[in-house]
Amino acid sequence: MPWSNQNGGGGPWGGGGGNNQGPWGQGPNRPRGGGGGKGGPPDLEDIIRRGQDQLRGIVPGGFNGGVALIIIAIVAIFWLFQCIYIVQPDERGVELRFGQPKQEVSMPGLHFHLWPMETVETVKVTVQQQNIGATSASSSSGLMLSGDRSVINVQFAVFFTVSDPKAYLFNVENPAETLQQVADSAMREIVGRRPAQDAFRSNRQPIETDVINIVQGTMDRYHAGITVTGVTIQNVAPPREVADAFEEVQRAGRDRDSTIEEANRYTNQRLGQARGEAAQIREDAAAYKDRVVKEADGEAQRFSAINDEYSKAPDVTRKRLFLETMEQVLKNSKKIVIDEKQGVVPYLPLNEISKPSQQGG
Q1: Do strands 151-162 and 226-237 pair parallel, antiparallel, or not at all (unpaired)?
Q2: Which pLDDT tens digit goes with each residue over 158-194?
Q3: Where in the cell is it found (predicted)?
Q4: Calpha distance 18→25 (Å, rounded)
Q5: Which domains are seen in the chain, by residue range?
Q6: Which regions of the chain does DSSP assign to beta strands (E)?
Q7: Is 324 helix (H, G, I), strand (E, B) or coil?
Q8: Whole-angstrom Cα distance, residue 85 to residue 92?
C-alpha cells in the first residue's frame, strides 16, 4: 500500500507501526513473551515449545523416534486384548486355528489364544427354549391336520441343551432353524396320527413323548450336538373361521363326559350296594349252615347217647322215651285227662282250668 513504506513502515498518519506500536504511534498495552508481564495470559507457542522439550526428555531417541514406539505399544496392547477372551459360566468356547476347530473345548474362565491366527466361537450350554407354531389366533403357521380330519392350530415349545459345542457350531449350518423345522414336522406327523381331542385334553403327554423321540433321533442323525430335554404343548385352538362350531362340539363333548361320569357314579353306587347285600346273604347262609350242622351234630350225639342207654336197659329207656314224648305232645294240649279211679266231681269248670295254661303259654 502507499502508506506502508512511509516513516520506516509507520501508519498512514506518520506514526511508526513497527516496534509493536499502533497506528497513532503508541504500542499495545499488553506484555509479550512467555508471561513476562504481570497479570497477562501465557503465550500458547511458549507452552507448546516447553511440552515438546519435556516429551523429548521422556521418550528415548527424541520426539520422532518416540512416536513410532507409542504406535507399537498401542498395537501391542490392542493385540493383547484381542488374544484374551472370557467364557461365561453358561457358555463353552471352541478355538479355531486358521478356521479349523481345535479338539479341546474351552471351559468357563479366562483364556488366551493367538489372534488373528486363532479365533474363538462361544455357545450357550444351558437349557434353551424354541417356540414353534402360531402365536396368535389369526396366524396360520401352526395349522395341522389331525387323524380325524380336523384342522387345529398348535403352539408348542421345545427345550434343548447343547451337548457338543463343536458339532453344534460346525456340523449344521443353522442349528436353531433346523431344530424348528424338525420339531414342526414331527408334531405334524404325530398329530396326524391321533384324533384332535388328544391334543385338546389330557392325552397330550403321549404326543409330547413321541415328538421328543422323533426330534432327538433326527438331530442325532444330523450330528447337531443337541439334546432335546422336553416338548410342551402350550396352546391348541381351532381355526378362527370354525371356532364357534368347534366350541359347540367341545361343550357337547363335556356334557357327554359329565353324563357318562354321573352314570358311572350311579353304577358304582348300585354295584356297591349289591355287593354289600350279596356279602350279607353269604354271611347269613354261612351262619345258617353252621347252626344247622351243629344242631344236627347235637341231635346225632344225643341219639347216640340214648341208643347206648337203650342197649343197656331197653324197657326203662323205652318207657322214659314214651313219657317224655307224651309230655312234649300233651304239654300245649287243651284236653283234660281224668283218671277213672278218682271219679268225676258233679261240676268241673274245664274252661277255667284251661285259662291259666294259655296265659302261661
Answers
A1: antiparallel
A2: 999 999 888 888 888 888 899 999 999 999 999 888 8
A3: Membrane
A4: 9
A5: 128-237 (3.30.479.30)
A6: 84-87, 91-97, 100-101, 109-112, 118-124, 128-133, 143-145, 151-162, 226-237
A7: helix
A8: 12
